[in-house]
Each structure stands twice: as C-alpha cells, then as structure tokens.
Amino acid sequence: MREGGLERVVTMMSSERKSSVHVAAVVEPRTSVGHPFIVQLRELGVSVTPITVGARDYFSEFRLISALVAQIKPGIVHTHGYRSDVIAGVVARSHRVPTVSTVHGFTGGGIRNRFNERLQLLALRRADAVIAVSAPLARRLTEDGVRNDRIHLVPNAFRSLFDVLPRSAARERLGIEPDALVAGWVGRLSKEKGADIMLEALAQADPRWQLSIIGEGDELERLREQSLKLRISHRLTWHGPHLNAGSLFSAFDAFVLSSRTEGTPITLLEAMNAGVPIVATRVGGVPDVVDSSHALLVEAEQPAMVAAALSQIEAEPMAAIERSRRARERLSRSFGSAKWLAAIDSVYHATVRSPENGRKRA
C-alpha cells in the first residue's frame, strides 16, 4: 500500500468519524513497520489493524480480515480499491454484513489491469451500495452492470490534516533554489497518471522551467529512461514519496495534473488549498472541480498544451494569482468535508435499512 489519494480519502473520512471507525490496512511485510498511512491514522486517534500479507497472498488476506470482522462485528464494511472490493467484499457477505464501496477510478492499461477491473466490477455488482466520486465514473458503473439504484454520486471533499508550509520552508525541504522556476507533479508513477506526458511537456517548455516529481510507482525506471532520451534529466528532481505532500505545494510556481483518467483527484484539491497556479487535463471529474476561471485546462495526451500553459503562467503572473485565489474560494465553498461526510452517512443509513439487508440479517 502506498500513501496516495485513496489513502488520503480514508484518512480524512476516518479521522472525522474515529469513534465509530476501524481501518483494516493491507500492507506487505517489507512495509508493515512504520508505514506512513498507519502511523498517521494512529496519530489521529483512529483504530487501525495492519493486515500484513504478501502481494498475492489472497487466502491469508481473506482469513485475517474475516477474523477481524468476527472480532469487531461492524455494522458496515466500506471498501476502497479493487483488491479490497473483491476480498473484503466476499468476507463481509460471508458474515452477512452490508457492504459499501467507494470507486476512485479505473486505471486501464495492460491485460492484468483489465482483468483486475473485470473482477472488481463483478464484486461491485454484488455490493449493497457503490459510491462514485465523479459523474463519468457513475455512468461507467451503470454501463458495466452495477444497478443504478445502488450507485451514489459523492465527489471527494477536502479537509486539511496539516498546514501548508511557507514557500521558503517548502523549497528548503525539497532542496529547491529560491529563485528557480519550478513546476510540481505529484502522484503515483503509473501509466494513467501521465507522468510521461509531463516529461514531454517539460522538453517543449521554456528551458528555465524545472520539474519536481513527488511520488513512486512501477513506471519510475521507464520515466528515468525517457528523461535521458529527452535530454531533460538535469532539469528535473525525483523526490520520491512524501507523507502529506500537499504541505509542500507552496514550493511550486505551477502544479500540473497530466492524467489520462481521473475520478476526483485529491492532489487537485490540495493544489487549490495551497493557492498554487494549476494546469490540469480535462478528464474524469476534473472539470466538475475547476473551470477556466480557476485553472488552465488542457486536453489529455497533449504535452504541447501543457508547455503552452506553463508559458502562460510565467507570462501572466497576476492572472495566475487571480485564478489561484478563485480556486481556493471554490474549494472552501464547494468541497468542505461536512456535506461530504453527511452524504456518506446517508449512504450508510440507507444501506443498513434496506429491505435486502433486513433479510440478510434475519
């Protein structure tokens, strides 16, 4: 388990409801000690049980989660992510516990990913309720056979769990020179997140632009090779993963989200909170979060458009500042956690009270 958007959503949700939430965090043995996700949950007072299993030890995962469900007897099992939807969903049904799943997005890609998505969709068809974080995701779920009356559109919200550092402190933490012109890219290094598009954009942008990449993932070595072929490796820094990376966004002159697909990305909400100028691809739920008055929106798979947007931010700094101000106002006005949590509570109550679940418990 990496500390990404999904984990930040779980952290926000559980920290607000810590008296009634117990988190089962699936981690591999090599990361089980001191995993940042688990450490942060405990620091926030959330009950959490590490489920320590190998990458493909599905039987042990089933057995350990089943024992935990039998021990704590939850009223609902809420799953996040394909593996959790499949395994914890089966566990919950075997214990006659209602299930809710939040679908954060589908990654697409190779044969293995597509197979995992098919398994996940089979599991979602059996869930008692499915929360989609964007309207395109809700439509996709309906098209793939999830019952429409079980789908609930609840876009992600934002609650800061940390303070955004002053620009000078954030730059010092990341080792960025005070006068450098820097774009920031933050996320999982996987195909759907489009880090390769960002590298192509950097190669086409004004040579003064540097790039800071925060994150980890399976694409890292391929991306390093790409940067060498593009002859831009001297203009970028690989920072690796950072817990609470949103506190560092103030270090950037621009934040770029170059994804090929998205739900409602938490990094976008974090950039809005930090007041940094935003360049984002017009995919998934992104246009429901920001429009041209808040960010420079570009088409997916278009590095030249990303490069042009960076040039615009540099050439028109006051306009960029004004968009950032409006974005932060929109975040406060439309993406607060209170309405979001109330919507999730409403899904829980409807699920527990449904006639089908009454028959399950009978």
Could you explain the architecture of this structure?
By secondary structure, the protein is an alpha/beta fold. It has 2 domains: 5-158 and 337-361, 3-Layer(aba) Sandwich (Rossmann fold); 167-328, Rossmann fold. It contains 15 helices and 12 strands. The protein has helices spanning 5-16, 36-43, 58-72, 82-94, 111-126, 135-143, 167-174, 195-204, 220-229, 266-274, 286-289, 303-315, 317-334, 337-353, 355-361; strands spanning 22-27, 47-52, 77-80, 99-103, 129-132, 151-153, 181-186, 209-214, 236-240, 254-257, 278-281, 296-298. Helix 8 (195-204) packs across helix 12 (303-315). The longest helix has 18 residues, at 317-334.
In short:
The chain is of the alpha/beta class. Helices cover 47% and strands 15% of the residues.
CATH architecture of the largest domain: 3-Layer(aba) Sandwich
CATH topology of the largest domain: Rossmann fold
CATH superfamily (homologous) name of the largest domain: Glycogen Phosphorylase B
Number of domains: 2
Report the biggest beta sheet as strand number plus sense, adding barrel if it closes.
Answer: 6 strands, parallel
The helix content is 40-55%
Q: What distance separates the N and C termini?
A: 36 Å
Structural class given helices, strands, pairing? Answer: alpha/beta
